[in-house]
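seq:
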Amino acid sequence: MGDRQLFIGNLCNVTVEALRTYCEKYGKLTELSLNRDKDNNIYHCFAFVTFQSSYCTTEFMSQRPHVIKGEEIFVKRALPRSTASIPERLVVTNRLVLCNSTKYDKECLRNYFKKLGYIKKFDYETGLIDYKDYDDVDRILLARPHYIQGKEIFVTKFIPTEQPDTEIINEEPDQITLTDEEENLKIKYKYLEKQFEEYKQAKEKELNNLRKELEHTKEELSDITQIKLDKLIKNQQLFHQQLLLRLNPDSDSIHAQMCDDFLRSTPNKKRKTATLLTDNEYQYLT
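struct:
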């Protein structure tokens, strides 16, 4: 589902219907999740949209920027939790990291990864590649694992840190300061991290409510089952007492006990006062 699902942000003033109508211009949807604050009736500012076809997802990304009701929305591919870490899912960057890049042939690396997107810069020693579009990096992560001459190479996103990073891709100087674009990416990362926590808390609240409802249903089913069981046992006891009475019609104690139990078992119902044995039942007992 990873290549068919999108994360869409900046939706505070967009309704579910408006978002669905806009997205369906690019293809059929299988899921749309726009979270709402049920107490205050306020939308969270992000949603997850899943298209039926990965082609629709690619077409949607290729048509950026998108504007709904006069506001530009933010769009990125939603990486699956099963294959991507939390930072990989939250960070938006056009920088790809190749682990242990010097173990592979430089030209093989360049030729392989330039097929996956337009490369602006490539640093073989540090294993950093700058793509023109951040979507190229997400698509590369979705397509993992990657192999160079039969050997797997691990790739991930460049994760900004709090301290200035001096190992920036540049084929001429060895060290330069962070660019304005990278500072903006840091801000986006913190913003997405906050939204992710809000989404996580909302889902945890829903799960807790579902667990409570499940426990309540279990208790109700248990009570119903116990009532039916008690009724079945009581009916069996009355039936056996009636059989004993037919076999011993002169026993006053059996007759009194049977009537007492029968009246207690069905206090609010119209009761039968006699039960006749069939010929087969009588022959079996005698």
